[in-house]
Amino acid sequence: MAGKYDPERIETKWQKVWADERTFVVENPAPGSQPQGKGENATYVLEMFPYPSGSAHMGHVKNYTMGDVIARFRRHQGQRVLHPMGYDAFGLNSENMAIKTGEPPAKFTEEAIATINRQLRRLGVSIDWTREVVTCRPEYYKWTQWLFLQFYKKG
Fold first, then answer.
1. 127 band by pLDDT with thresholds 50, 70 and 90
2. 88 vs 113: CA distance, rounded Å
3. Which of 114, 20, 128 is nearest to 83 (CA)?
4. pTM (predicted TM-score)
5. DSSP for 82-142?
6. 15 contact partners, CB below 8 Å, separation of at least 6
7. CA–CA distance, 113 with 53 (Å, rounded to integer)
8. Which fold has domain 41-153?
9. How confident is the model at residue 41 (pLDDT cuts 50, 70, 90)?
10. Rounded-to-integer distance, Cα 54 and Cα 96, Å
């Protein structure tokens, strides 16, 4: 029988392989080309964004494990799977934790996001981390502002 299972060594090894080989990254198609895995061969998996108000908990583990199972199953079927990650970082949860800790909301929120990222990566979920969305960052909310302006202009 093989030696005792060493999760730190084995899981760290495979997480490095996945990162180095960009295993879960879905590249954008070149302009004018047809994307691979279009239509029936493409799947989009998106779990509900967490509020980054601290560390991940068992509810997060359950939520992201379910999404991960679907993403891996679809990949196993030969589908091209886009599985991004996001954080709902505008809200009372983040504000309340910032008040409780005495840290500015932006600092606390970014630290909580980094913590949850580390935890989910350690869990080994098959997320495309190049597609992370954070609702309190200008590169995201500029589009929600633009959209609301379009609605306003149209009455």
1. very high
2. 10
3. 128
4. 0.83
5. E---EE--SSHHHHHHHHHHTS-HHHHHHHHHHHHHHHHHHHT----GGG-EETTSHHHHH
6. 121, 122, 124
7. 8
8. Rossmann fold (3.40.50)
9. confident
10. 11
Query: In angstroms, rounded to a whole number, what is the distance separating the alpha carbons of residues 142 and 109?
Result: 19
Do residues 15 and 121 make contact, with C-beta atoms less than 8 angstroms apart? yes
Alpha carbon distance 75, 60 (integer Å): 22
The residues, any chain, with a CB within 8 Å of residue 67's CB and separated by 6 or more, are 45, 46, 47, 83, 125
Rounded to whole angstroms, the Cα distance separating 62 from 123 reads: 11
Model confidence pLDDT, tens digit, residues 128-138: 999 999 999 99
Residue 38 scores a pLDDT above 70:
no
Residue 36 pLDDT level (bands cut at 50, 70, 90): low
In the chain, domain spans: 41-153
Give 54's Cβ-side CA count (13 Å radius).
12
Tokens of 71: 């993403």
